[in-house]
Design a protein that fits this description.
The complex is a heterodimer of chains A (116) and B (119).
Chain A lengths: L4 E3 L2 E4 L5 E6 L6 E7 L5 E8 L2 E4 L8 E4 L6 E5 L8 E8 L10 E2 L3 E5 L1
Parallel strand pairs in A: 2-11
Antiparallel strand pairs in A: 1-3, 3-8, 4-5, 4-9, 5-6, 7-8, 9-10, 9-11
Chain B lengths: L2 E3 L4 E5 L4 E3 L2 E3 L5 E8 L6 E7 L7 E2 L2 E6 L4 E6 L8 E9 L11 E2 L3 E6 L1
Parallel strand pairs in B: 2-12
Antiparallel strand pairs in B: 1-4, 3-9, 5-6, 5-10, 7-8, 8-9, 10-11, 10-12
Classes of the chains: A mainly beta (116), B mainly beta (119).
């Protein structure tokens, strides 16, 4: 079974440009999360999808970030226009629909974004 | 709001020896989950071990075990018989019970501890 995959693995863009990150969750996983780690700091929650619906986007830094999950499959996270402080590693995670047992989240390897 | 603190940015251990990584957290919730994740260089983050707060018994997974002190809000990870493949970033994470206080199951992470294993 394929794990969570993220594209690209690395991206270097200039300030003001647009970048789109993609996450393919494990097949059948309804929950999809985006996280970000800025260098030297904690991994921070960005948002959570259940299927195609945004359940919680309280962690999105500002309106330059737009996440979508059309059809409840893969998700994209677009940053437009990118700023220097957006540099970091963006992680995606997926899990089965939560029951009271709170199932495990599986992570992708992350996309390292560098804005210059 | 919950917070997670990992006070050791870097640790080093000799192969075959034991190392303990520290983690403390702050919460007003009585039931929750705690996790240790491992991220090898350029690879996916994987779950090492999890602990349910309502369980008094410390979780164990092969060479990995935790020392969960609920009253002290401490959750350390012990790696026994360290191997070269244990070298990685280790993240401690907290998760509320889904549905409690509106939680949707997102994780709250510490800054991580970089573990090096010397041959």
């Amino acid at each position: 079974e394929a794990g969570v995959t993220q594209f690209p693995s690395h991206s270097v863009i200039e300030k003001g440009q647009t970048v789109t990150l993609r996450c393919d969750p494990i097949s059948g996983h309804d929950n999809l999360y985006w996280y970000r780690r800025v260098m030297g700091k904690e991994i921070k929650f960005l948002l959570h999808f259940v299927k195609e619906s945004k359940q919680d986007e309280s962690g999105m830094p500002n309106n330059r970030f737009l996440a979508e999950r059309t059809g409840g499959t893969y998700s994209t996270l677009k940053v437009q226009p990118a700023e220097l402080e957006d540099s970091g590693v963006y992680f995606c995670a997926s899990s089965q629909r939560d029951s009271w047992m709170n199932t495990e989240a599986f992570f992708g390897q992350g996309t390292r974004l560098t804005v210059v | 709001a919950q917070t997670v603190t990992q006070s050791q940015p870097e640790m080093s251990v000799q192969e075959a020896e034991t190392v303990t990584l520290s983690c403390t957290y702050d919460t007003s919730e009585s039931d929750y989950y705690l996790f240790w994740y491992k991220q090898p260089p350029s690879r996916q983050m994987i779950l090492v071990i999890r602990q349910e707060a309502y369980k008094q018994q410390n979780a164990t997974e092969n060479r990995f075990s935790v020392n969960f002190q609920k009253a002290a809000k401490s959750f350390s990870l012990k790696i026994s018989d360290s191997q070269l493949g244990d070298a990685a970033m280790y993240f401690c994470a907290y998760r509320s019970v889904v549905g409690y206080g509106g939680s949707q199951g997102n994780l709250i992470f510490g800054k991580g501890t970089k573990l090096s294993v010397k041959p």
